[in-house]
Amino acid sequence: MHPLAYEHLKKVLINGLAGPDESCDYYPCHFHGQDCTWCFCPFYPCEDPQTGGEWLRRRDGSSVWNCSHCYWIHRHEVAAALLELIRMRGIECVEALERASRSIFQELKERHPPVKER
Length: 118
Known about the structure:
A hairpin with a 5-residue loop joins strand 1 and strand 2. The protein has helices spanning 3-15, 76-88, 94-111; strands at 54-57, 63-66. The chain has a two-stranded antiparallel ribbon with strand order 1-2. The mean pLDDT is 91. By secondary structure, it is mostly helical.
């Protein structure tokens, strides 16, 4: 996990929901009014095109997961439901979140199916 993602997720586990962050230089990176709590997604790379993400080929031939069209985790109700699932499971550190991320992802998708457009 990227160090910036690790530090951001640590803050989320302590502080909770962030809501829109209009002071961010990149806001809105997905849509106006987005919930920025999961700016660094705990599921990255989810590799699930239902979220709006896709694999992109780089110039060097390698691939990278592009989630710029993912609206799902930035909808407030999904962001809040994810935090609730994490707390229900007693997850208090990023390492535990990483270990549980696949099962949480599946449960969250069942409760709040992804949509490609807002």
